[in-house]
C-alpha cells in the first residue's frame, strides 16, 4: 500500500485491531493489514515458524473431548462418554464433576445420564459467523435443496482452508456424505475455495497465494505453479463461479460454488454437490447454477436488509442523545 511500511509493529497493530476469527469477513473495516497479519500469524502458529514450543494441557483436552461427545449425543452415561472419547472412566467422572460444578453439565435424577446445560451455549456467543450462516444462509440452502434434491453447503475462510459451517447433506435425498459440518476444504482443490480466492480483493488474494505457496500441505502444492494458478483463477472469474468435478479428495462428487457478499465484503461461499458418476460437470452447471444464483441473491438481499435495519436502529439510538 502506498506510503505504508509493512513493519513488525504495523503487523502487531493489525492483529490487535482485528477481531479474532472474523477479520476476513470484515475486510476493509479494520486496519488494512489486519487480514494479512492474522492469516500469517495463524499459519506460522500451525507450522511452528517463529513460535515457541508450548506444552498442551492434556486434562483440558480430555475435558473438551468429553464435552464434544456429550454435545454430539445430547445425553450419555459416563460409560458411553468414556468409550466414545477414549478417556478413562475415572477421569470422565472427575471431568463431569468439574463441568457440573461450573454449570455446564447436569446429571439426570431418573436415568443417571449426563446432559448439557444452557450455559454451554454461552461458549459460542462470540462466534459471529453463525449469525448470518444459521439465521439466513441455512434456511435458504434448505429451501434450495428442497427444489433440486442435491445437498448444499455454506463455508467461510479459516486460515488457509475453507470450513463448512452449515450443510443440507442430512436432509438431501441425493446426498452420499454425512458429518460435513466442520470439514476443511483446500482453497485450490474445492469449488468454494476457488470461488472465494477468485473473487476476493486483490490484496487478500495475493496474500493467500503467497501463503499457500509455502504450505507443506500437499493439497496446496498447486499454488507453487504460478501460471497454472493464474489461469485457474482467470477461468473462475470469467465463469462467475467455482467448479470442481472429481479430484483427489472427493473423486465421487462434483460441485459448483458462488461467493456471498454484502457490499464490498466477501463473507464466504455457498455450493451445491452432485454425484460425479451420474452428473457431468456441464450437466451440474446447467441444473444447479441458476437456482444457486437465486439463493445467493436471496441471502445477499436478506443480509443487506438486516444490515440496513441495524444501521437505522443505531441511528435512532444515537439521535436520542443528540
Report on this structure.
With about 325 residues, the chain is of the alpha+beta class. The protein has three domains: about 10-45, no CATH class; about 60-125, Arc Repressor Mutant, subunit A, CATH 1.10.10; about 130-310, 2-Layer Sandwich (Beta-Lactamase). It is about 50% helix and about 15% strand. It is built from ten helices and nine strands. It has helices at about 10-15, 35-45, 60-75, 80-85, 90-100, 130-150, 190-200, 200-215, 225-240, 280-320; strands at about 75, 105, 115, 150-160, 160-165, 185, 240-245, 255-260, 265-275. A six-stranded antiparallel β-sheet has the order 6-5-4-9-8-7. Strand 2 (about 105) and strand 3 form a beta hairpin. Helix 2 packs parallel to helix 8 (about 200-215). The protein is globular, with a radius of gyration of 22 Å. The two termini are about 40 Å apart.
Entry keywords:
single chain; 322 residues; alpha+beta; Arc Repressor Mutant, subunit A; Beta-Lactamase; 3 domains; 6-stranded antiparallel sheet; 3-stranded antiparallel sheet; globular; disordered N terminus; disordered C terminus
Superfamily (CATH H level) name of the largest domain = GAF domain
What is the CATH T-level topology of the largest domain?
Answer: Beta-Lactamase
Tell me the strand order in the biggest sheet.
6-5-4-9-8-7
Order of helices and strands: HHHEHHEEHEEEHHHEEEH
Structure summary:
This protein has 322 residues and is α+β, with helices and mostly antiparallel strands.
Topology:
Elements: H1 8-17, H2 34-47, H3 58-73, E1 75-76, H4 78-85, H5 89-101, E2 105-107, E3 114-116, H6 129-148, E4 152-158, E5 161-167, E6 184-186, H7 191-199, H8 202-213, H9 226-239, E7 242-245, E8 253-262, E9 265-275, H10 281-319
Antiparallel strand pairs: 1-3, 2-3, 4-5, 4-9, 5-6, 7-8, 8-9
Helix pairs in contact: 1-2, 2-8, 3-4, 3-5, 4-5, 6-10, 7-9
Amino acid at each position: 500500500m502506498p506510503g505504508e511500511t509493512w513493519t513488525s509493529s504495523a503487523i502487531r497493530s493489525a492483529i490487535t485491531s482485528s477481531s479474532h476469527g472474523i477479520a476476513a469477513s470484515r475486510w476493509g473495516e479494520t486496519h488494512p493489514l489486519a487480514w494479512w497479519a492474522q492469516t500469517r500469524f495463524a499459519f506460522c502458529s500451525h507450522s511452528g515458524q517463529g513460535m515457541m514450543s508450548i506444552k498442551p494441557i492434556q486434562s483440558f483436552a480430555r475435558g473438551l473431548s468429553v464435552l464434544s461427545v456429550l454435545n454430539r449425543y445430547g445425553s450419555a452415561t459416563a460409560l458411553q462418554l468414556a468409550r466414545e472419547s477414549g478417556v478413562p472412566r475415572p477421569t470422565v467422572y472427575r471431568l463431569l464433576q468439574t463441568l457440573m460444578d461450573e454449570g455446564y453439565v447436569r446429571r439426570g435424577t431418573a436415568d443417571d445420564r449426563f446432559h448439557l446445560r444452557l450455559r454451554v451455549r454461552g461458549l459460542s456467543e462470540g462466534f459471529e459467523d453463525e449469525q448470518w450462516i444459521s439465521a439466513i444462509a441455512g434456511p435458504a440452502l434448505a429451501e434450495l435443496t428442497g427444489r433440486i434434491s442435491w445437498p448444499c453447503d455454506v463455508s467461510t475462510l479459516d486460515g488457509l482452508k475453507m470450513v463448512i459451517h452449515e450443510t443440507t447433506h442430512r436432509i438431501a435425498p441425493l446426498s452420499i456424505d454425512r458429518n460435513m459440518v466442520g470439514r476443511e476444504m483446500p482453497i485450490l482443490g474445492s469449488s468454494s475455495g476457488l470461488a472465494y480466492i477468485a473473487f476476493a480483493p486483490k490484496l487478500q488474494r495475493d496474500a493467500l497465494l503467497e501463503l499457500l505457496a509455502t504450505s507443506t500441505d500437499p493439497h496446496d502444492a498447486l499454488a507453487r505453479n504460478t501460471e497454472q494458478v493464474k489461469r485457474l483463477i482467470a477461468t473462475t472469474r470469467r465463469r462467475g463461479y467455482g467448479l470442481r468435478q472429481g479430484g483427489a479428495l472427493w473423486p465421487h462428487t462434483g460441485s459448483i460454488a458462488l461467493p456471498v457478499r454484502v457490499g464490498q465484503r466477501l463473507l464466504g461461499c455457498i455450493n451445491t454437490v452432485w454425484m460425479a458418476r451420474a452428473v457431468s460437470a456441464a450437466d451440474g452447471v446447467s441444473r444447479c447454477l441458476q437456482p444457486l444464483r437465486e439463493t445467493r441473491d436471496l441471502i445477499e438481499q436478506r443480509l443487506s436488509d438486516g444490515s440496513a435495519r441495524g444501521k437505522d436502529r443505531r441511528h435512532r439510538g444515537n439521535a436520542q442523545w443528540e
